[in-house]
Amino acid sequence: MKRFQPAPSEIDELPPVDVILISHSHYDHLEKDSVQALNSKGNSHFIVSLGMGVLLKKWGVPQERITELDWWQSTERNGIRYTALPARHDSSRTLTDHNQALWSSFAIEHGSEKFYFHGDSAQGSHFDKIAEKFNGFDIAFIENGQYSEHWPNNHLFPEQTARYAAQLAPKRFMPIHWGAYAMALHAWNEPLLQSLPLARSLGVNPLTPLMGQVFDADTATQDWFAEPLESSCCTVY
Question: Where is the Metallo-beta-lactamase domain (predicted)?
Fold first, then answer.
């Protein structure tokens, strides 16, 4: 699997990472070389969905630096609380390990601040439970891409992304899962062009930083993705 746009930085350019949060085992979310490179940089702790630890240990991550969570289980590190939440997706890396590890979304809480990481998930009743339990987020990172009518139970369509963002009631909504790997036939920027107008009409404030841009909840962003990419490699599938 290859990115259609270059990564904004190399792993060796990153500072030591305190916590690495991994939602599920698909190759676009879990990559052996990246895990091993991050593991070699220091004492990063991996918080992952239930069943993923065996693979991380196989790749050299010590057991004491792995925490596996089932849905609705939580763990705390350095005053930050991480809770694994339901998702509607699947997991596998080969033809023989289908759904042997769990797939999750996550809530991250520190004091009064709350963040939501959607991972991969299609629409489902679990969204109602998450919205009810957390009563709003500071930033919600929600999947917005790689959808298809051929796999409607794996990913959100743009309209669903916008409506789920409104349901979660975040101060800012950041669409993810659209600007790195092409795994569907839609144009690379179609998810944002379709979801953001609806999200804005529903009162949701989008956050769309440039790839590699450092941002926070107050960062002002523009619809830079509406312009064609300079490289012709990524404009037509």
Answer: 3-178
